[in-house]
Design goal:
The protein has 87 residues and is an alpha+beta fold. Helix content is 34%, strand content 26%. Helix 1 runs antiparallel to helix 3.
């Protein structure tokens, strides 16, 4: 299992478009992927759950990945959370 703190970037945080991009990318992986903001957790493959976190720019979230492709998943999702172009 991998757990990493990631600072939310972009001008609006994880609102509709960035959340949709994150969920679309997360769906490509077999690993279980979760985001945590404080005590709240969300399945990174669910748009409603990701948006319910209401993560704003500058806030820190925890990205948790567990499964056979967890390293690749973290490497692909971190830039999206930071508001950067995917690598």
């Amino acid at each position: 299992m991998i757990r990493e703190e990631v600072r939310v970037g972009g001008p609006h945080g994880l609102h509709a478009r960035p959340a949709a991009q994150l969920v679309q990318e997360a769906a490509r992986f077999e690993s279980r992927l979760r985001l945590y903001r404080g005590e709240r957790g969300a399945d990174a493959k669910s748009i409603l759950e990701v948006m319910s976190l209401a993560a704003r720019p500058g806030e820190t979230v925890i990205l948790e990945a567990e499964g056979p492709d967890e390293k690749e998943a973290v490497a692909r999702l971190k830039p999206l959370i930071k508001g950067e172009a995917p690598s």
